[in-house]
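User: Hi! I'm working on a homework problem where we have to compare a predicted structure to a textbook description. Could you give me the structure for the chain below?
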Amino acid sequence: MHEPPRGDGRNRGEPGVPFVRRWEEEVLPAWLVPTSGENRLPVAAAIIVAAVLQLLLPQKFTLVHPQWLLPAAEAALLVTLTIINPVRLTRHTPAGRYLSLLLVAVISLDNGASAVLLDTRLIGGTAGSQAAPLLASAAAIYLTNLIAFGIWYWELDRGGPFARAAAHSPYPDFLFPQMTQHHLARKDWEPLFADYLYVSFTNATAFSPTDTLPLTRWAKLLMALQSAIALSTTALVIARAVNILK
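Assistant: Happy to help. Predicted structure tokens:
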């Protein structure tokens, strides 16, 4: 890696700007230097979609009753997080961090329970005799699974969105192509929520990493868990639906 030029630590052309900071901005890619906080709106929209999908599931595939209870709790947590950081993630607080992890954990546990109930009923032959409702329920669980794991990846990679914006760690948990091929991306490129959602989508459809590689053990285990949930649900539902249609 390049070493910063020696000097008095200041840029003479711009008084008050640390010379090393300007060197970092000119030489290092954006994902390795401090940047502005990420926009909350894409994540908030994904959470709202997940809550709506949970409400649309038939009650026989939900573990907690009344069915609106968990989506309501998720909405309350989202409102609290939005109050802390209305648009951009610029205000880091321990409470906000714990609430964010609790929110995605609630979504994941509820959707995981729905997947288990669906798979159990499919194996037992009590999931239903109509293909369309069965496929719709499986699609809702599949999409919620995709969103939940996308948020997990976004929340945990390099310590989360606040830690990434502050460039606390130079060691990524997910290796995006732009990190190794800098000439393929703009100078200000850094991974955002859409990138992690795409990683979740490809992992849930291909059941393996595609263009982005998990580097740490937790990332590999989390992707393996997502693939297992997606594969079991998809295989059982398609098999049952084909059997019904015949």
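For your comparison, note the following. Confidence is low (pLDDT under 50) at residues 1-13. The CA atoms of residues 12 and 19 lie 9 Å apart. Good luck with the assignment!
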